[in-house]
Amino acid sequence: MQVKDLEANKGNVDIVLEIVEKQEPKTFNKFGKEGQLCNCKAKDETGEVKLTLWNEQVGQVKVGDKVKITKGWVGEYQGEKQLSTGKFGQLEVVQN
């Protein structure tokens, strides 16, 4: 799959992207547990998409890495598509 094919509210997304920008991680509390999230900008040859990293993923990825998302989820926030691993997906750094 490629960025141009991503549709909001769709799951089971398999895609390889290059991380081109990484924001500062944010810490949050949910259900009494502390977690981290970090928004990145990722691209392929067809476009860019916002990629949200959760918890341990935040430390795995840096700018310039190629990552493979398996069974990812595309959500939408304020009209912008956002890709994440969702509940069932996986993130793997395939090249750094």
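the 2nd protein, sequnce then structure:
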Amino acid sequence: MNMKTTTACSQQFRNFKGTLVSLRMASNDNAGGISIIEHQMPYGEAPPLHVHRNEDEIFHVLRGSMRFEIDGHIRVAHAGDILLAPKGVPHRFIVDSLDGAHCLTIMKGKDFETLVAEMSVAVADTSMPPKVEPSPDMIAALVTACARNAIDVIGPPLAA
């Protein structure tokens, strides 16, 4: 049996559109192509309604509460909950807990992992960034980057 550690990945923190992310396992570091990204998000963080063309997205909530809409169905998830947004299915979420949320996204493939790398910047400060209200230019850049990475933005974020 082999055990691989990812200490190099786990020390790299990035600001991804106002959230703190860390690549915990890169898709090219394992035979199964599994990607694990850790997210720390402020209250109100809400990506637009979107569809991953190639990847199932698994959310494992570690702290806080998040309200998800997956294929039109609403579910509130708390620490310990795991949700699946299958590829091809529209989904979005919003962070409901006032002190933010902490979760992992787990995917087989590199589309989302590549998007995060493209749309984020390295940071030394590992405290939770404040919520960012996206400008029209930020939204356009995200939509373009998503399309380049087999993710289609099809609607607005969930409202608080």
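The first strand starts at residue 13 and ends at 16. The mean pLDDT is 93.
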